Amino acid sequence: MTLPNYNSIKNKIAFLTCATMLLFGLQAHAQISIGGGIGYNGEISGPGITGKAEFGITEEIAISPGITYFFGSKLYGYNRNLLAVDVNALYFFEIIESKLQIYPLLGVNYSNYKTGVSSYYGYYYGSSKVSDNAFGANIGAGAKYSFSEKLSVYLEPKYVASEFDQVVVNAGILFQL
∠ CA(50), CA(51), CA(55), 5° rounding? Predict the structure, then answer.
């Protein structure tokens, strides 16, 4: 007959207790906003559509995942399209109480880029489709103006440092859940 390992059981109970307290502690400050808007990517000279969420960790700090699809200009008969997936950390500074906030942003980016390429082979001229992807870092700033407790608009210019170095500007609307 083996005896139960009470230290293991105590560790599990302590872990579950701390995790539960942390979860309820985060929910006290958690504010979730979702929305979308439009963007412009300077590298591919094209507009895009964006979806974004903000998960408030504290009143000043939020994590903001987003996805943007840019419809680029044509190159060699192919559209230069880019799909960007971002996760940014935001730190809010309140400028006008309950109305205007500004924030720096820092985060990570994954971009998938599609375009066309032209080649000349002596007497043959051809073009082909090219696709590539890259990971990078986001650095930028933003501003958010609240019209009410549930509705706000935002503007976010940022620089994406990666193999596809990009300057991106997004603007849109957020609804607080």
Answer: 135
Rg, C-alpha atoms of the chain: 22
Both tokens assigned to 90 = 């935001």
Q: What is the number of structural domains in the chain?
A: 1
Beta strands in 57-99 (DSSP E): 61-75, 78-91, 93-96
For residues 147 and 99, what is the distance between their CA atoms, to the nearest angstrom? Answer: 7
Distance of CA 25 to the CA centre of its chain: 25
Q: What is the pLDDT along the chain (177 residues), one digit of tens a residue?
A: 444 544 556 666 656 565 555 555 555 457 999 999 999 999 888 899 999 999 999 999 999 999 999 987 776 667 788 999 999 999 999 999 989 999 999 999 999 988 776 666 666 666 677 788 999 999 999 999 999 999 999 999 999 999 889 999 999 999 999
Residue 35 is part of which domain span?
Answer: 30-176
Q: How far apart are CA 18 and CA 78, in angstroms?
A: 54
Q: What is the CATH number of the domain that holds 107?
A: 2.40.160.20
pTM of the model: 0.75
User: How many Cα atoms occupy the beta-carbon half-sphere of 46 within 13 Å?
Assistant: 20
